[in-house]
User: Fold these one by one.
Assistant:
Number 1:
Amino acid sequence: MTDRYAVFGNPIGHSKSPRIHSLFAAQTGQDISYQAILAGKEGFVAAVHAFIAASDGLARGANVTVPFKEEAFRLATRRTPRAEAAGAVNTLSFEAGAVIGDNTDGAGLIRDLKNNLGCDPAGRRVLLLGAGGAARGAILPLLLEGPAELVIANRTEETAARLALEFANSFTRLPGCAVDVKPDGMGFPDLAGRQFDLVINATSAGLSSAALPLPTSVFALRCVAYEMVYGRETPFMAQARANGARVADGLGMLVEQAAEAFFIWRGVRPHTEPVLAALRSTS
Ligand code: NDP
């Protein structure tokens, strides 16, 4: 009996998740199927229920991508602490009538930084650009790594300030959380004269090829610049390169968040290096 999984999104045609999970399954000998499902903008919940109903009791889980992560958060009957902190769910597990919601994006980012790029956020001055869902999902995982500081900067300054305050006030409530750095929130102009060792672009500006109005000072010597967008050279990547930073795109994060979801569902952690290499060789 083949356990069934899916990824829901809109659009979904571009999704690499079916390929990633089929490579994981082949590597670990797991008998699963994984399909991409396009849900109507107002039809996410109905699409999940239809998938479960059509799977004869074999639907075990799903990934969720843009624009449904907040709706998946509300659909979940139980949520992990990191999903609560992110306010969004990208991984659902279907267990005996319960729908468990998790968020593996932040864990994927940290694994890519530490394991694939050799960039440990511990002790580094970290700048997180953006204050949307991807940024929100990254904040707690980054704080838990013990950076020297964490600054959140956003085009709409108030959103960054609100997000920073929210985490500064609430992260101590999470179990096992021993963080002593409180994030600061600001607008891009406030970054003038400040330097960071790790700059993470969690804005969607790269999707529209818009440049960010970043002061060049933000890229410290030996800075790592991480772009969450993948599959293209964005203006942020070009700007970081021009200022001497080591640049990475978000493909590793995509593969690592998928590996974390696979581990949640199957209890087996796949090796990500060959999967990442396979994706890079064909992208
Ligand atoms: P959201 O729509 O929730 O947030 C978008 C953010 O980008 C906001 O902070 C917004 O600022 C900012 N922004 C948008 N356009 C511009 C611009 N032209 N200049 C400056 N800031 C801008 O998106 P998400 O947080 O969900 O996703 C962000 C990016 O991360 C996407 O590109 C997505 O593809 C990528 N991502 C990659 C993943 C991976 O695995 N590699 C996983 C998850 C996301 P404002 O508040 O001012 O509107």
Number 2:
Amino acid sequence: MPKTDPDADFDGYLAACRTRCQAVLLPSLDAGHGELRVPAGLLDASRYPFENTGKLVRPVLCYAAAEAVAGDIPPGADHLAAALEIIHTYSLIHDDLPAMDDDDLRRGRPSLHRAFDEATAILVGDGLQARAFELLARAPDISENSRVAAISTLAGAAGLAGMVGGQFVDISAVGETMDLEALREMHLCKTGALIRASVALGGIAAGATEQQLARLDAYGRDIGLAFQVVDDILDVTGDTQTLGKTQGKDALADKPTYVTLLGLDGARAEARQLMESGLAQLAPFAANARRLEQLARYIVHRDR
Ligand code: GRG
């Protein structure tokens, strides 16, 4: 019997999930309907950040979580996965603004406010955020209860007590000292909340039980934090070309990170420990959690 290559198999899975998400996401960036139309210049700017896609980790986590529950990916997961990527992309656009991280490079190209202008970048971010929730509200193939649960979960994760709150603490922390617990709390919100919601939305799309959702949530919490630990490591060890964003920004901005607090080896150990803890949550899903397991390893061992 020919041996299958597990890495090639996972690469194929990533590619299939990305294609599936894009098939819903890209057409959703349309010019509107009836009398309410997106102005041409704004439409071009809104599509720009999706021309060079990122890793689409959040949609793939959503699909993999749905698969852990249902055994395969239900069609109801597609709009949820696309909405997650749209919210993530809006956050990157705003994160790059001069008032935030002030970064000229994103996904290997000029960031949106550089390619267009600052006011356009703010408006595109705002518009994308609304478009993501429009997509969720119109999601087919899921029950009304699941649709409302998905909207509520994503709004909570993206909002004041989630990603935006974490960003606020991050910006306020520049030049300040922060202990590990405070850093963890900040990243649970800033990066972790959306990743955690990605896993939850997959469970919701697949009709997970409360117990299954709790397991997925614990996995998502650990993996979300692990993602940020690795992001901090790559900011030190990566290179700008591979990352597609400016390497070394954290040190330049004098930001507290997992590497400044734990050192490189300590940060690597922290990422591994979070991965193991996340993997331990998957036992009840047995073989259906294979993709979530591979994703946890991918997140921790990635180079961009
Ligand atoms: C409303 C003004 C305003 C701000 C919104 C900007 C913001 C609040 C929050 C930003 C949160 C943020 C940018 C977190 C960083 C998370 C992170 C590690 C991003 C990199 O994600 P990847 O590696 O990127 O998945 P790709 O390019 O692969 O999609």
Number 3:
Amino acid sequence: MVKKAKTSFFCQHCGYMSPKWLGKCPSCEGWNCFAEELVTQEASGSRAEINFGGKPLPIEEIPTEEGKRLTTGLAEIDRVLGGGVVGGSAVLIGGEPGIGKSTLMLQMMHNLAQNGTKVLYVSGEESASQIKMRGQRVGAASKNLLVLVEVSLEKILEQIKNISPAIVVIDSIQTLYSSDLMSAPGSVGQVREASSRLILFAKKFGIPVFLVGHVTKDGSIAGPKVLEHMVDTVLYFEGDSGHAYRIVRGIKNRFGPANEIGVFEMQEKGLKEVPNPSSFFLAERPQNVSGSVVVPSLEGTRPILVEIQALVSATNLGMPRRTAIGVDHNRVSLLVAVLDKICGLHLGASDIFINVAGGIKLSEPAVDLGVVAAMASSFLDKPIDARTVILGEVGLTGEIRAVSQMETRVKEAARLGFEYCIAPKTSSAQAIKVAKMKVITVSSLQQMLENLF
Ligand code: TYD
Ligand code: MG
């Protein structure tokens, strides 16, 4: 009897499976994202080829050696990874097209190859000569850097077995194709199958694998969300083509701190590390103009000083505009309401634009006070002293709340020559003693405004 081919419908965003077509995904609530894919009962060999042969062990008898970490030669990436690449780990690196994923991978592989590590760069997107051309641009040339142009998962696995490289890059995971599945490359089924087999392979042979992943328009890594769960580390490439800087942010990391960032600048000859991002982001700061304020934000374990700009101008519209770039839009609305109600600054008839200079994104509430100060400064048209940094979280009643790791932030500000810091009134802030830095503690918004203007 001929077995009927079994198909299911998969959400192309999150991997949700449904026996029939749906207009809206019940899991991720995306519209029109279901595609039919053929399901095979058991992808042949994929499970059998992996045999860990393990038996349960008491936890105290498990050897603790973490294994040596591979140093990538890019200090920024090493830090984001938590001190280098862990053997057998799977790292997903996502980002928009053209942001520099392939460039970064090639530079990293080149550094490793130069130190005598055999590396394999698999590309399914570009021809070998295109890769060679990029290689010449970034100066990548080494006998140990092997390039394979291939999209068949089985052939890639075979080559990895033959060559046994110390590290593998797959650029990109969406181009891979396994003949076990009938669906098209880039579909959820293929992406999931290819990644799970590569990851198992990596774990079994202790070879770290870097998977490059494309990002959809809305910013999530294309293909199933499960990809993020399967890998050990998820790195995200941020930045836009309008700016030269690029940020690699660790979203998830099983071997180190998450949310750590590495800062790069895209130049003629590839990506260049920016070891001192604060001065980079403050380079073009205008002096003595209203609406500009510097906040010491904490990205991972590293403090970075950034400039927040606000423009408050009278509106002709019935509904004033509120635009926020780099900070959360809802958070800004909340702060506007607090300023209006608690401090009597009536912004109701003003358009408000907030921008974080350099295009970096700030997500922590510790920058609240900076946003408020920038808005107030622009509204009152009074500049804030250029030697001042401001940090603190703002509550709904106008109270100012504590932020974490005050001392680290204040020290970074002092290092860059700032002399005053407006901070929440907490014991930790009052205890801070940093040379040439005066910490002014405030407990309410009014108090801060009195201090500033
Ligand atoms: P690429 O690494 O191909 O991006 P992705 O793999 O994420 O799609 O980066 C391509 C962009 O980077 C392209 O717009 C040109 C620019 N670029 C430079 O500015 N300098 C360089 O040395 C290289 C290699 C690329
Ligand atoms: Mg690419």
Number 4:
Amino acid sequence: MTNKYIVANWKMSPTSIAEAEDLLAYIDEHLQNETENKEHSLIICPPFVFLDDVSKILSTSRLSGQAELGAQDIALADFGAWTGEISGPMLKRLNVKYVIVGHSERRWKIGESDEVVNKKLKTILANELTPIVCVGERERNNNFQEFLKNQIKATFAGLSADDISKCLIAYEPVWAISSNPGAYPDTPESALESIFVIQEVLTVNCKLETRNLPPFLYGGSVNATNAKDFLSLNEIAGVLVGGASVRKEEFIQILKNS
Ligand code: PGA
């Protein structure tokens, strides 16, 4: 298997820095001992309040050079009066390299529109950070392809082909995200069908050459059992793991299976 991205989206967990340290120590120990010959790009996205500590741990432990830091959100502006927000330059000072944007929990629970996602995406790129752009339909109905096409067009509006090729795109069907009632994981085949729809919009509407298409990740109830099914596909460059990324034994299994 070629080098795959494993993105740990901790969301609003764990609840204390002690637990976060424990989780990282466990990953450190087992990464060295059990996943020796595995090649993966590990990206840890903790809550904002832990970024500073996690950044220090990633640069001083054996995880240095093996894991990079991601943020779960970014302010629309780099400076100024934006109560409660964290700017791109602040993230960069903490050694953040990636930023999740367009996550369905922000789109649907908090009400972030495509327009806001698009602006944040531009801010991430302007700060020379790598966006992990989440897209996905809410329901797998007859209209899902149309929904995806419109979401992609609006999310990437005004971006050059060059900028789009710098992103990672995470296809995360909302109905598959484990925090939603009745959620169940997508199948690799149907995830691939959606990825092809997204690729078509990017090549036809956004004028990307096929060879410049960005890497595609899958997210939505990824666990120790199903991760390898998604990761075995050439078209899927990695997984975005939510709930299972803070269950330490399970997360190590995902890394071992990648
Ligand atoms: P999940 O979350 O793995 O818990 O389904 C994925 C995500 O929300 O990014």
